């Protein structure tokens, strides 16, 4: 698992993730064990010349390829550098984030089919974030691959006029800290309200519970806050999630180096923190992957 989140303000949007990925293996005796690695890539710049990126969580591979490898191959398509997919090249002056998300959905679906999958073995989240050519603020489209849904339709979870934060995958620490509760407590309260009040449907129960829970919310995001402060907030949220996972009973499913990137109308995509498995000084002429 992981934590992947965004913080959006007037000056831009910040993406931040941990680096943990969990793989399962079956021992000869039939026992299933989990191994956590702390060097997975989860943020990807999808076009060198455009303010478009992606962030992932959940399933770490599709067939024989990691999500990182597939995302980098997808970037070559969008930049017109893969002759087999020349039709996928983006027009630098006319593109939308939604269209990129649709192409990403199709790409992952094809990768699953090529691997012989008829269904995803576990959930894969892929958030495509960026600034469309006809807009000056970021938006985000979510792809949720699960079960036999090989090519999900992108769902907009952040419009160009929305601001704030949201955490995915393992958001408990962030939500408990700033909302005052996590999703599990909310679901339990809704179920309890429906059980105790006969005839109350879920929509009405959600409305009542959310009205009460809203009193505990502490929103740390002011839309006018400077982008560097949004960067520090996003980093703090991931580091807090890592500490929470470390001291909670169970495997450290959130951990490793914190990676942070930003997208702004004027500076475009910028890395703030990232890791490499090689040293640039020893690889002269290498471009940033």
Folded structure, characterized:
The strands form four sheets. Strands 12-1-2-13-14 form a five-stranded antiparallel sheet, covered by helices on one side. A five-stranded antiparallel sheet has the order 5-6-9-10-11, with helices on one face. Strands 3-4 form a two-stranded antiparallel sheet. It has two domains: 3-171 and 223-282, Glutamine Phosphoribosylpyrophosphate, subunit 1, domain 1 (4-Layer Sandwich), CATH 3.60.20.10; 181-216. The chain contains six helices and 14 strands. It has helices spanning 67-78, 97-114, 172-178, 183-196, 202-213, 227-247, and strands at residues 3-9, 12-17, 21-26, 32-37, 43-45, 52-58, 61-62, 65-66, 120-130, 139-147, 155-158, 164-169, 259-264, 268-273. The model has no long low-confidence stretch (mean pLDDT 93). The protein is of the alpha+beta class. The protein is globular and about 65 Å long. α1 packs across α2 (97-114) and α4 (183-196) packs across α5.
Q: Summed up, what is this model?
A:
29% of the residues lie in helices and 28% in strands. The protein is α+β, with helices and mostly antiparallel strands and 289 residues long. A five-stranded antiparallel sheet has the order 12-1-2-13-14, with helices on one face. The protein has a five-stranded antiparallel sheet with strand order 5-6-9-10-11, covered by helices on one side. A two-stranded antiparallel ribbon has the order 3-4.
């Amino acid at each position: 698992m992981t934590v992947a989140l965004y913080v959006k303000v007037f000056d831009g949007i910040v993406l931040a993730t941990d680096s943990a990925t969990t793989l399962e293996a079956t021992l000869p005796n039939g026992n299933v064990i989990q191994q956590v690695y702390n060097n997975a890539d989860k943020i990807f710049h999808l076009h060198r010349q455009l303010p478009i990126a992606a962030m992932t969580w959940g399933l770490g591979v599709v067939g024989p390829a990691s999500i990182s490898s597939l995302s980098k191959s997808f970037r070559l398509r969008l930049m017109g550098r893969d002759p087999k997919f020349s039709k996928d090249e983006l027009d630098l002056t006319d593109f939308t984030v939604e269209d990129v998300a649709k192409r990403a959905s199709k790409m992952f679906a094809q990768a699953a089919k090529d691997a012989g999958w008829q269904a995803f073995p576990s959930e894969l989240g892929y958030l495509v974030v960026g600034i469309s050519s006809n807009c000056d603020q970021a938006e985000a489209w979510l792809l949720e691959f699960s079960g036999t849904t090989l090519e999900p339709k992108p769902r907009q979870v952040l419009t160009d006029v929305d601001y704030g934060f949201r955490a995915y995958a393992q958001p408990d620490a962030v939500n408990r800290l700033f909302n005052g509760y996590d999703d599990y407590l909310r679901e339990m309260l809704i179920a309890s309200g429906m059980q105790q009040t006969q005839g109350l449907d879920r929509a009405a129960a959600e409305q009542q519970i959310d009205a009460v829970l809203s009193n505990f919310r502490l929103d740390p995001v002011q839309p006018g806050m400077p982008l560097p402060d949004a960067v520090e907030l996003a980093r703090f949220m991931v580091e807090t999630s890592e500490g929470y996972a470390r001291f909670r009973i169970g495997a450290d499913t959130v951990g490793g180096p914190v990676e942070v990137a930003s997208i702004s109308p004027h500076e475009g995509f910028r890395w703030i923190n990232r890791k490499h498995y090689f040293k640039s000084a020893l690889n002269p002429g290498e471009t940033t992957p």
